[in-house]
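sry for the spam today, last one i promise. struct tokens for design, 206 residues
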């Protein structure tokens, strides 16, 4: 009993070596947990950004499809904005003023890359001023997302759309692609013998 009482009366604590050992172990465990939480949080943020960007691109393609379906023809743009890489100007009776234009505008992307934004404007010209920006982070080569094909006596006019989206251009495997061939439903089957000047399209066969 005396030994037990003596042991209970002692006020010995942890030594400095023991305290430091516990602190090192605790710091190692907490550091690993913190890294795990940070990695998970960054992955969730990246996923949300990619989902939002892909959703915006799908909405842009849907709106572009409606404009092209309503259009009677594609016409040469009246002006080329300095920063625009490609333009699609539609004679659109569904729009106020009769014209709708789409274009891509380049800007500097991450890691020295070049990315493009897709704009829509109810006008015969298109640029980043006063236009609705519908998609971002496009990496389609040269920003050329439209390929126009004139109508012929056997087919209506059409536009091939190629939208390639990537928030990390250095990682080609992360590219999200949307492509479609959209017909101008209000165009006419016409035999064109002259070489059209619209977007450098070849003259269709008669």
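last one done:
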């Amino acid at each position: 009993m005396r030994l037990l009482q003596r042991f209970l009366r002692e006020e010995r604590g942890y030594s400095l070596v023991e305290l430091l050992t516990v602190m090192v172990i605790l710091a190692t465990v907490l550091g690993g947990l913190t890294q795990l939480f940070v990695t998970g949080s960054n992955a969730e943020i990246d996923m949300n950004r990619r989902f939002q960007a892909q959703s915006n691109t799908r909405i842009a393609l849907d709106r572009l499809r409606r404009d092209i379906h309503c259009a009677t023809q594609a016409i040469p743009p009246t002006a080329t904005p300095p920063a625009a890489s490609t333009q699609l100007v539609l004679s659109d009776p569904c729009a106020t003023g009769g014209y709708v234009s789409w274009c891509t505008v380049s800007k500097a992307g991450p890691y020295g890359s070049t990315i493009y934004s897709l704009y829509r404007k109810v006008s015969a010209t298109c640029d980043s001023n006063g236009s609705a920006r519908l998609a971002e982070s496009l990496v389609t080569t040269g920003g050329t997302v439209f390929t126009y094909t004139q109508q012929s006596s056997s087919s209506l006019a059409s536009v091939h759309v190629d939208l390639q989206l990537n928030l990390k251009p250095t990682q080609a495997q992360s590219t999200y692609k949307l492509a479609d061939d959209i017909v101008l439903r209000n165009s006419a089957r016409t035999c064109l013998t002259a070489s059209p000047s619209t977007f450098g399209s070849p003259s269709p066969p008669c």
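Strands lie at 73-75, 84-91, 99-108, 114-121, 132-138, 146-149, 158-165, 176-183. ok im logging off now
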